[in-house]
Amino acid sequence: xxxxLTASRWLLALTLGFFGSQYxxxxxxxxxxxxxxxxxxGLQHIFTLAFLTIIFGIxxxxxxxxLWKYGYVLVKSLAEGINSRPPAQVVGGTVGFLLALxxxxxxxxxxxxxxxxxxxxxxxxxxxxxxxxxxxxxxGRMVSDMPNLPETFSKxxxxxxxxxxxxxxxxxxxxxxxxxxxxxxxxxLEGDLIVPEFVLKELRHIADSSVDLTRAKGRRGLDYIxxxxxxxxxxxxxxxxxxxxxxxxxxxxxxxxxxxxGAVITGDYNLNKVAILQKIPVLNVNxxxxxxxxxxxxxxxxxxxxxxxxxxxxxxxxxxDDGTMIVVDKAKNRIGExxxxxxxxxxxTPAGRMIFAKIKE
Length: 361
Hints:
- The protein starts with a helix and ends with a strand.
- A hairpin with a 2-residue loop joins strand 10 (338-349) and strand 11.
- It is of the alpha/beta class.
- Helix 1 (2-26) crosses helix 4 and helix 5 (87-110) runs antiparallel to helix 6.
- Helix content is 58%, strand content 15%.
- The chain is built from 14 helices and eleven strands.
- The longest helix is centred in the first third of the chain and has 42 residues, at 42-83.
- The strands form two sheets. The protein has a six-stranded mixed beta sheet.
- The chain folds into three domains: 2-143, no CATH class; 168-290, Rossmann fold (3-Layer(aba) Sandwich); 293-359, CATH 2.40.50.140.
C-alpha cells in the first residue's frame, strides 16, 4: 500500500511538473522576459522540457508529501475537535462562519478601490481569516448560552448510539491493572474509551524498561489495549491530541477529559484526588472492585485459612477468595489452620475493606 501511494505521488508530481514546464515554455510573457527559451527547437526543446519536468516533479513530490503529512494531522485534529463538541454548538459555529464570510465579502469589496492590487489582497486575506474565526467562536458561544436550546436541538437529532454516555479517558495505571478489560467485556461500561497517544508513549517506555517486572507490565498494558479494541461492544479510539505546554502525563489526562467533557478511568489514588479537586468525573477501578465485593455483616460465619501473624498481639490474618483481608483475634498460633470465624466488625479504608472476626467456638 505504501509503495502504491508513493508511486501515485510520483505520477501526480511528474504530471503537474510536465504541465508546469509546458506552460513555462509557451507563455508569451515568460518568452518575452527570456527570449532564449523561444529559440529552443527540436531536441533542445525536448531535453529542456524533460529537465524542467523532472526538477518540478521532484519539488512537487516533496511538497505533496509535506501537504499530506501536515494536512492529515490538521484534518484529524479538526475532526476530533468537532466530534468533542455538542451538535448544537457545531451548527451554531457553522452558521456563524457562513455569516462571517458574507460580511467579509462585502468588506473586501471595499478594498477593490485601492489601486495597488497587492495591498488589497493583503488586507482581504486577514479580513476573511479574522471574521471567519470570530463567526465560529461567537456562533458556537451564542448557541451554548441560549437556555434549553441544546436540549431542544438534541430532540430533533433522534436517538444515537451510546446516548447519555460520556467519553472516558484511560489512565496508564488502569490499563496496566487490567481489570477494566473484564469490566468492559461484561457490558457494564458505556461510551467511548479514549486512549491518548501520550499514554501509549508512556506504556512503550515502560515496555522497553531494563527491569523484567516493569517491562512485563508495560507489554501487558499494550496487550490489554488490543483486547479492548477487539471487544464487539466497545468503541476504543486513539487520539493524537496532546498538550505541549504540559509535561506531566496525569495533568494532560485531566486536561483532555475537560476538553472532551468526559471522565478519567484510573487506579491511581493521587490522580483520583486531583480529579475530584478539579471537579472532573473520575472512575476508580479500585472503588469499583470494592463496591462489587460481597458485604459481610457482624455475626456472619464462614471458614478462612490463617496465613500469617497480624500487627497486633494474638491476631492472625487470612484472606477471602476476592482478596478481602480478615483479621482474626486470638489466631496468632493457628497459622496454617482453616478456622470457622464469626464477623465482629467491618472497616472500609481507601485501600479496600477489612473484616475483623473472632474464632467461632
